[in-house]
Amino acid sequence: MITSCTAPWWRLWALALAMLIAPVVNSSPTDADHHSKTFFRITNEQGGVELKANITPKEAKRGYSVVTLGGVVVKTVAAELSDEEYAQLSETIKTEHDERERLQKERLYDESLLLRYSAVMDLEAEQKRKLSEFDLRISILRSNLYSLKEKMLTQQALAANIERRGIVVPTKLNDNIADIEAEMKDAEISIAARTSEKALVDKQYDEDAKRLAALLKAVSR
Hints:
alpha+beta; Methane Monooxygenase Hydroxylase, Chain G, domain 1; 6 helices; 4 strands; disordered N terminus
């Protein structure tokens, strides 16, 4: 006969079953374990994605990501560039750098135009003065060239008279003629250079006038 203090048989059975199950439940991996363990995610040679516990140096060169089982990306390592890819990247970076510099110079030049001139007529007045200065310099150079030509004619005539008398032209006279000829060539080169420079300056002022007009129009809006 079972007394009232004795537990029912089914309670004892449930307690024993719980004790057996408890170790099994406690030993199963938790969500934290799943998320803390990491793997290498790579793209294989066939283009497929793989998760691996370890990767080879060859696989590492193709680039990889370190991820958890939960899909969290811990780290990403880019693929190594080939010589051709590196050259292309370098060229792209250089192009972008050159473009940034060009835009920077353009911006600074626009700012200088707005600082120097308050109206297009101010620029055109300066253009006229600059061109007049070139004309003056060129005129002086041409005057010097004309004087050299006169001197050359005089020296050549003297040498011709000496030759007609059957006398050898003195070395000094020949040297004078050679020196004058060299000075004439220098003068001609200077005239050509100043004329070319004047044309470039004139063209630059015309371009600046157009740009300034556009900038002033944009500022006034």
